[in-house]
Amino acid sequence: MTQSNTILPPLTERSGVIRWLRKNLFGSWLDAILTIVGAFIIYWIVKELWTWVFTVAEWQVVATNLRLFMVGQYPLEQVWRLWIALAFIMFLTGNSLGIWARKSYFATILLLAFPVLLTLFPFGDEPRKWLIILTIVGVIGWGIGRTASEKLSRIVIIGWIISLPIFILLTRGFSPEDGIMPIVGTNLWGGLLLTFLLTVVGIIFSFPLGVLLALGRRSELPVIRLASVLYIELVRGVPLITVFFMAQLMLPLFLPPNITIDRVLRAMVAVTLFSAAYLAENVRGGLQAIPKGQFEAAHALGLNGLQTMYFIILPQALRLIIPILVGQFIAVFKDTALVAIVGLFDLVGIAKTVLAQPDFLGLQREVYVFISLIYWVLSYGMSYLSQQLEVKLGVGKR
Amino acid sequence: MRKTLWFMSMLIVVSLALAACGGGAPSGGGETVTVVETVIVEVTSSAPVVVAPTGFGVTLEAVKARGNLICGVNSQVPGFGYIDANGDFSGFDVDYCRALAAAIFGDASKVEFRPVTAAERFTALQSGEIDILSRNTTWSLVRDTELGGNFVHTTFYDGQGMMVPADSGITTLADLAGGTICVQTGTTTELNLADVMAAEGISYTPAVFEDADSTFAAYAENRCDAVTTDKSGLVSRRTVLADPSAHVILDVTMSREPLGPMVRHGDDQWFDIAQWTVFAMIVGEEFGITSANVDSIKTSATAPEVLRLLGNEGDMGLKLGLDNDWAYNIIKLVGNYEEVYNRNLGPDTPTYIPRGLNSLYTDGGLLYAPPVR
Which CATH number is associated with domain A191-398? Predict the structure, then answer.
């Protein structure tokens, strides 16, 4: 402490429970009354919620239909493929945390222990076994990542890039009926699996499309600029649900009779095209925030237009709009719930059909609380990870 | 950096290719459909609508080539169409699809259920995405004509019903004399109620509400002695009451809501198959043939109509373009009308609806099938 340079705050602002309480909660008579009333309201809410969750609610509906919520009508004997796909992603997650987030112990432990935490819920033996395997795989990946060289990090990046194709390949299967991985039609994909795939495909494909549209809108070529403006304004001018209705109801009427496009694929394309228009405007906002000097400096270095964009402008612009991008991605995640209206069994769609089971009639609260919890955990997860990314990239500090 | 760019483009290409593969139809695909003709029909909005190929025998041929029946169903109506905890479709309308598959393939599982919403059901039928619509759809003139469909037969006679608390002792409309009835305003429900009560000379006080939610909320708060809407609606509304078993639906029907399967215009053979599937189930009930005793009846029966129905005599199935044991398969694999009804809407289910009009004509109901000859 001898070398300490910290400036101590004035005595009145120093810590101490009573001092803190007096300052923040009981500063005046009005504060005191508000604090007491507030505390009472919180107590009441928590107490009611506690009573409902642990004594009134009939969670049997969730426990019995857990498989429907997670994978929809996906054949039970093929679910192992999804676990394998998840294990692959878990391995990559562990790897990446080991390589790039060596100091974020809290995030690492949380992410790797998450599957094991889930075993606390009544999930049955088979899922429990897999959840424990997930954590083990994650920890192994982390261990390898920590001792990694530059070379490994490149392999991990490739792993992430092929993770979506692998996930879709494992989900869909490729062999005939009696083979090791028989094809599972998209009409059987449902629940969280469908929500997840719609979201991930929507995000991954709308991102490059959105960047291209944003660049197109700033292009000096009138045709490209006009086309981009037209696309962005047209798509932003209609609600997502009408895009879904167009894709699911109108499209079949216009197509020749013997051509059918898969319904899930139609929904994926609709999400992607819709999200791209919004992303384009977000990216354009980032592009406009880059000072003109950056362009001029790049030109002075002899970089051409493409190189300027790729090496100078986009890295800065995209870094700036991370919070907006994550907001957009969370919105995409939640917007996919609209496919329930056009008859696909995403998380919300499957919840509605579970509510029609004669054995569990009238349990709306339990079912909707459960899926809300799933939505919240995943949305907050995305938000938390983006904050970690921002800290790492120093957004807002430079 | 250049490498990353290359990887990104690879990712996009590979994913696109996979997504495109994922788009393929799961089993066999619909490409084998022989295009006979493309019919342009005028819809209400007078927009030209391309209708799936139709013509005598085309649908059956396409279904057989595909190897399964695609049936448009509801997935959110208790008792009629929903997904059970095993991930299988269940319900009254769903079992009809299974019966049709049994008639065609002799295998009730060769059916792909396509959940369709109220908004898209007619489009799905017109565009050929589904072979038949079996989704609690009310038969009406407009739907029978302009929407390009034919109603096969009424499989469930729905109608306006009345729900009362079980301990109220009310069993008929007359018991409601002088009582208060919750009803939604501005609907045919309200008018039907007034008509029926006036015709029977029963005085009552209507308690009218703007929407269905507040109507049933008022009933739940005991602000009225009874509540009225369509029977299947009463069943699903009852489920969200605090104690569903404390309420009963009276065995009276106050309006006509005939629900049944629907097929596309233009393929009379398909229409016949769909219709006689319903008839076979009704005739099965009339002669007491069930999935349990159909085998013994098939060997011991002497009644000529039963022999014709089960394929022992004549060639009824062949006339429909099916195998001769089509009706045997329906009853053996799915059951007769009574079995299907009781499985989904019977007294042992939480979605119990008294049979009422859905009884055989011999029991005072409306189920009446033409003779199998």
Answer: 1.10.3720.10
